Amino acid sequence: MEWNFWAVMTDFDLLLLGLVNTLKVTALALLFGVPLGLCLAVLRLSGARLVSAAAAFIIEFFRTTPPLVQLFWFFFALPILIDVRMTPFIASIVTFSIQSSAFFAEIFRGGIQSIDQGQWEGGKAIGMTYAQSMRRIVLPQAVKRMIPAFMERSIELLKTTTLVSTVAYTDLMFQANDLAQKTFRPLEVYTVVALMYFALIFALSQLSIAVEHRLAKSGDSTVR
Amino acid sequence: MNAILRIENLHKRFGDLTVLAGIDAAVEAGETVVLLGSSGSGKSTLLRCINFMETPTEGRITLHGRLVGEERGGVMRYRESELCKLRTRIGMVFQHFNLFPHMTVLRNIMEGQVTVLKRGAAEAAAKAREQLARVGLSDKADEYPARLSGGQKQRVAIARALAMDPDMMLFDEVTSALDPELVGEVLKTMRRLTEEGMTMVVVTHELGFAYHVANRVLFLDQGVILEQGEPQQVLKEPATQRMREFLDGHSLFKLPD
Ligand SMILES: Nc1ncnc2c1ncn2[C@@H]1O[C@H](COP(=O)(O)OP(=O)(O)O)[C@@H](O)[C@H]1O
Ligand SMILES: [Mg+2]
After folding, report:
1. Rg for chain A (alpha carbons), in Å?
2. How many CB pairs under 8 A join A and B?
3. What digits encode the pLDDT tens for the residues B202-221?
4. pLDDT value of position B178
5. Domain limits of chain A?
6. Helix (H) or strand (E) holding B172
């Protein structure tokens, strides 16, 4: 067995393009998934039982079903139901926005519920509406507590996006498969790709640890 | 009569538990009314019905001669927007302060003014500093609540309520969570409010405060007002056995300051 990275190196720009697309899917899934998750959490926490149950079902559904099934459903099944032209890109964004929103919803819910009831009362007593208390008083404190779980989930999302290669979206994994077949060098290609994911995710988790450290030091002064 | 607040036939039930069983009371402008009662007698519930933190099960509340809510088919209906507005007119201070820990003291006092009353930041800040001076904490404007003592926190909470220019203030056992040596500074602040003519309803176990500051004392027992009158009379010559037992349970009157 002889290692030969020459083929990988000459086509490294293909892998870089894949990396950019991986980051693009992840970033867009976060961009849509986080606000959608907040909406789901708010609905889930709402006093209206039917609304709350519906939100709970959606959250549970997308947390429980395999993301690959979801992706195939949006890519292959949805266009049969309604008249949309599904591209691998759109199917990927839709799937991972919704899928991650279900997880973010639970993180938001946990964060919001961890805030002392007295904070809601403090807001209410000066005439704030539910929305004002949520936005000005509860969420800013809850978000701070959520950051570690949020970062962990984002890293998980980044890993899960490798699935988009199965519907031929040109993410890092897809480019790797492509290159491995073209060059007959799967050993080197997948080794390099594994290292690229490792470097990226390791950097992110280091960042996450640093942030957690900062938070711990600044002190969670939320307890009255 | 010049009643700011009138409560008629107020009932509050939580499921099967009847906490308030027909309360009738009125509070005059400038009056300080102290609400007494043993633990669990419904004092907090009554206060919280006044600013609709709890919705009364039955009964009517009139503020400045205007009925809160509308009666439809014999049932009171309340609109949330009306209640939010009402809460800006009635300040409330809690046992556990409920300050916003992610904001400085000044921001805490500005928050309601800016977010709810839509005052400009400069106006709100000026008003906040004014109220902070009123409770004697001008030097703490830029601190975070976590760095204050319990007594200071409670005075900030009072300033936060006052900054809304309320017509009346509700105090729910605001000294109960404080170390004994910090109780005095808060009671003194409240006493000054009384002297300035603020209308107040105060739930407290500080009988000294009731005796020396209140214009009127109400004793809540088993869901009704069992006794009421001037503090000197009610506290010294209770008419009922229940009130006597309640007073016996308290180590009698210590003066505030
Ligand atoms: N939100 C609630 N749900 C159910 N029961 C309540 C609620 N709030 C108060 N109670 C009950 O009502 C009674 C009176 O409580 P409260 O008004 O807090 O009394 P106090 O302030 O005089 O100690 C208690 O038995 C309490 O358990
Ligand atoms: Mg109470």
Report:
1. 21
2. 73
3. 999 999 999 999 999 999 99
4. 92
5. 6-217
6. strand B168-172
Q: Alpha-carbon dihedral of residues A43, A140, B102, A157, nearest 10 degrees?
A: 120
Partner residue facing A125 (CB), from B53, B85, B117 = B53
Expressed in angstroms and rounded, the spacing between residue A123 Cα and the centre of ligand 1 is: 21
Q: What pTM was estimated for this model as a whole?
A: 0.89
Q: SS3 for B46?
A: helix
pLDDT digits (tens, 9 = 90+) for A114-128: 999 999 999 999 999
For chain B, how big is the Rg over CA atoms in Å?
18
What ipTM score was computed for the predicted complex, to two decimals?
0.92
For ligand 1, whether the C-beta of B127 sits within 6 Å is no
Residues near B139 by beta carbon (within 8 Å), at least 6 away in sequence: none
Residues of A engaging B, defined by a Cβ cutoff of 8 Å? 118-119, 121-122, 124-129, 132, 136-137, 140-141, 144, 219, 221-224
Q: Which of A64, A86, A62, A63 is nearest to A74 (CA)?
A: A86
Helices (H), chain A: 6-10, 12-45, 49-64, 67-72, 78-81, 88-113, 117-125, 130-132, 139-160, 172-183, 186-218
Q: Could you tell me if B92 lies within 8 Å of chain A, comparing CB atoms?
A: yes
| DSSP secondary structure letter of residue A184 | T
Looking at the complex, does the CB of residue B249 fall below 8 Å from at least one CB of chain A?
Answer: no
Residue A179 has which token pair? Answer: 């290159």
For ligand 1, whether the C-beta of B37 sits within 6 Å is yes
pLDDT, block means (10 residues), chain B with 257 residues: 88 96 95 95 96 95 93 90 95 96 96 96 96 95 95 96 96 94 94 96 94 95 94 91 88 52
Give B-chain residues touching A124 at CB under 8 angstroms.
53, 87
Q: How far is CA A163 from CA A91, A126, A169, in A?
A: 11, 49, 9
Question: Is the pLDDT score of A222 beyond 60?
Answer: no
Q: What is the pLDDT of residue B253?
A: 53
Domain A6-217: assigned CATH number = 1.10.3720.10
Nearest to B102 among A118, A121, A141 (CB): A141
* Closest listed residue to residue A180, CA positions, set A15, A48, A2, A1: A15
